[in-house]
Design goal:
The protein is built from 24 helices and 33 strands. It is of the alpha/beta class. It has four domains: 209 residues, Quinone Oxidoreductase, Chain A, domain 1 (Alpha-Beta Complex); 125 residues, 3-Layer(aba) Sandwich (Rossmann fold), CATH 3.40.50; 135 residues, 3-Layer(aba) Sandwich (Rossmann fold), CATH 3.40.50; 195 residues, Dihydrodipicolinate Reductase, domain 2. The strands form six sheets. Strands 32-31-30-29-25-28-27-26-33 form a nine-stranded mixed β-sheet. Strands 3, 5, 6, 7, 8, 17 and 18 form a seven-stranded mixed β-sheet that branches. A six-stranded parallel β-sheet has the order 11-10-9-12-14-16, sandwiched between helices. The chain is elongated and about 90 Å long. The protein starts with a strand and ends in an 8-residue tail after the last strand. The relative contact order is 0.09.
Length: 731
């Protein structure tokens, strides 16, 4: 299928072929009929992408701050590689469309194949022939509504949410500043609500369009027409609400809002304009400044948008989806007319040219649509059922050396895979990147373009059923690791899975059952710290131990962003469940043993966790994992004390061993590189699989680390130490 994408680094727009999206539970596959170009939001993104790196930095100071912090934490080289990887990625455009349901995922019963739906979301309603859309981001189009008009539903919901934030009442007077696509819809919605509307825009044609659809007066900022209309309609008091639907860098809209508002009026920011509020003007009138968050409640909440958890209508009357439905109903009943807003309809094949004409100003108007080939539902190809794998299927019982390059498939190609794993594999002559599978068609296409995969798709069965693929990398979200690992092992593949291996003992049991059933134990978990060159050298310098050791491992993880998927504890486990295995594995490797008991305590909400591990020879280790520290402090520090010696490890920058004559390693040598061991870890995995030699980390150690990590939560629940058997299982 085809999709319009942009390379944010170069600014180049391309219409490319990408894999067909996977049909997942809780959503539908929609074949697009019409998609709407948001001439404000999208052209701003296109313009920003065409800037120099310095221009991009000035436009996104929030991202610059993240880069600066990443340099302090991860070093310059890793940060540069990560930042350039993000910049040099293909990004989607679009977020509002109308199309026909082609396939229905499990758990969806409110629409059927062939239904016409309006869809929202900058990841789910993009300019592409097919989109997978979760259930709370689509709404069924009422019979009789033109699909071209239904394609406006998302921007209509944005305008509708903005009006709701203003809380207008019958007979009030409102000022709408900015008469682009959103502003025009705000004018119509206010008029439909019985509010007297005055519009402001420097473009005479936009002013005329607003007059035709309900505005009583319109004019340029500061014009006599606008000032006079406000005075006449409000008796000189000023307007009741101001809706800022303008963009740009000028502060004129907020200054105009203060001048023409009444005492204690409401000012609602819907667009993205400069907001340097003149303090005296806003203070003296006690103006109520409000923000309107996109389509409505539910926006930016993964539980609502991705998992389909609706908000009870008694508590949240107007959600994203209910706003979509409301706007479609207003169009259906003729209370809102979007036909006059359509300035141009372009065939999707001309998408690149259309953007260029819009950007140059050759193509004007507020509403531009892409028209797609026939959106009649097509029967989806039913993939052949994968053959059941069991002990009777006689999978290989022993590792066999591989002649030629290791043929690799990736399941998942997100930020970590793209910045920390694939760059180390792409240039190896003994590795061939054969297939990349992601749930997002564009992610797969991005990985194929950047790293040279021979194929890209959203079809996992195509990888598991391909006998020529030797190894599968599982680099997806935590909740899927165990099941994907289990399936790949049963398919006879060597598996590299990022941590964690499992989020519960039940998941781990299924993985181990797959090993037993298939005889395939070619498994590695991404515990990369034990491969970090500086830490390896420090352990060697410390030497063999005679007596028990005391270890302190402080992990200053820092706070999570509000949008992080790590916060989805119901599906992805806690933050420590996802990352804690790294640190348990590192300590166990340093001590050359597996823990025999775990005792844990935590702050409220388990945000900061402290786990005490005991080892067979009496050694103890305390792992302190905290998100409440300061970002300028080192992320990981380790102290190991035994036999009159001390090993001090400082965040992959330097290490010291105190034993008579002190060894100080890498001081001033590694800060720009902070090698955390990924390259060495991958090299060890490739060598083991190609040669048929034992895996770099024994399965028993992977199991013990996973069970010890899970035991932390058993201890938190019981308030008592959790004893572990010699193989790591709770005893």
């Amino acid at each position: 299928m085809k999709q319009i994408v942009q390379n944010y680094k170069s600014g180049q727009l391309r219409l490319i072929d990408v894999p067909r999206p996977a049909v997942k539970p809780g959503g539908v596959l929609v074949r697009t009929a019409f998609s709407l170009i948001s001439t404000g939001t999208e052209l701003m993104k296109v313009s920003e992408a065409g800037m120099s790196l310095l221009g991009k930095a000035k436009a996104r100071p929030d991202q610059v701050a993240k880069v600066v912090q990443s340099v302090a934490t991860n070093g310059l080289a890793a940060t540069y590689r990560k930042a350039m990887g993000k910049l040099d990625s293909l990004t989607p455009l679009g977020y509002s469309l109308c199309g026909v349901v082609e396939q229905v995922g499990a758990g969806v019963d409110d629409v059927a194949v062939g239904d016409l739906v309006a869809c929202a979301g900058n990841d789910h309603a993009v300019h592409a022939e097919l989109n997978w859309v979760p259930k709370n981001l689509y709404a069924r189009v009422p019979d009789g509504v033109d699909p071209r008009h239904a394609a406006f539903a998302t921007v209509g919901a944005i305008a509708l949410q903005g009006v709701r934030r203003g809380e207008p009442a019958l007979g009030e007077t409102a000022l709408v500043i900015g008469l682009g696509l959103i502003g025009q819809l705000v004018v119509q919605l206010l008029d439909a609500a019985g509010v007297r509307v005055i519009g402001v825009d420097p473009d005479a044609q936009r002013c005329e369009l607003a007059r035709e659809h309900g505005a009583l007066a319109c004019g340029a900022p500061g014009s006599e027409e606008v000032d006079g209309a406000v005075a006449a309609l409000t008796g000189g008091a000023g307007v009741d609400q101001v809706y800022l639907a303008a963009g740009g860098s000028t502060n004129q809209p907020v200054e105009l809002a203060a001048r023409l508002s009444r005492d204690r009026a409401v000012v609602v920011d819907i667009g993205k304009c400069r907001l340097d509020l003149p303090w005296n003007a806003y203070y003296e009138k006690e103006l109520d400044v409000r923000f309107s968050r996109s389509y409505g409640p539910g926006r930016y909440d993964p539980g609502y948008e991705l998992d389909g958890h609706d908000y009870p209508i008694g508590y949240v009357r107007w959600t994203e989806r209910r706003n979509l439905e409301c706007f479609l109903d207003l169009v259906h009943r003729g209370r809102v007319d979007v036909s006059a807003l359509i300035a141009h309809i372009a065939p999707f094949d001309s998408a690149v040219e259309t953007y260029e004409r819009l950007h140059s100003g050759e193509l004007g108007g507020v509403g531009v649509l892409f028209a797609y080939p026939s959106a009649r539902p097509e029967p989806a190809a039913v993939p052949a059922a994968p053959q059941a794998l069991s002990a009777a299927a006689s999978p290989p019982q022993a590792a066999t050396p591989i002649r030629g390059p290791l043929r690799v498939a990736f399941v998942g190609a997100g930020n970590y895979a793209s910045s920390m794993l694939l760059p180390h594999l792409a240039d190896r002559e003994d590795v061939q990147l054969v297939h990349v599978v992601t749930t997002s068609a564009l992610s797969a296409a991005n990985a194929r373009r950047k790293f040279g995969f021979a194929a890209a798709s959203t079809d996992l069965d195509a990888v598991l059923g391909d006998d020529t693929i030797d190894a599968v990398f599982v680099v997806t979200r935590h909740s899927s690791h165990a099941e994907l690992t289990r399936r790949a092992l049963l398919a006879g593949k060597a598996v590299f899975v990022e941590k964690p291996l499992a989020l519960s003992e039940q998941e781990l049991e299924k993985v181990l059952a797959a090993v037993a059933e298939s005889g395939n134990d070619r498994l590695q978990v991404g515990f990369n710290r034990r491969f970090a060159p500086l830490l390896v050298e420090a352990k060697q310098r410390f030497g063999q131990r005679v007596g028990p050791a005391t270890v302190r491992y402080l992990v200053n993880a820092g706070p999570l962003e509000s949008s992080s998927w790590y916060r989805r504890k119901d599906t992805e486990g806690s933050r420590f469940a996802g990352e804690g295995g790294h640190f348990v594995d590192t300590v166990s490797w340093l001590l050359d043993a597996d823990p025999v008991s775990v005792y844990a305590s935590a702050t409220r909400g388990h945000e900061d966790v402290q786990a005490t591990l005991r080892y067979p020879d009496g050694s103890t280790a305390v792992i302190t994992y905290t998100g409440s520290g300061h970002a300028s402090f080192a992320k990981e520090t380790i102290d190991l004390i035994a036999d009159g010696k001390v090993l001090r490890f400082d965040d992959f920058v330097r290490a010291r061993v105190y034993r008579g004559r002190r060894w100080a390693g890498a001081a001033g040598r590694l800060p720009r590189g902070r090698d955390k061991g990924q390259a060495a870890e991958l090299a060890a995995f490739v060598e083991a699989v190609r040669s048929g030699s034992p895996m770099p980390v024994p399965l028993s150690s992977l199991t013990a680390t996973t069970l010890a990590t899970l035991a932390v939560f058993d201890s938190l629940a019981s308030g008592a130490p959790i004893p572990l058997s010699p193989n790591g299982a709770p005893s």
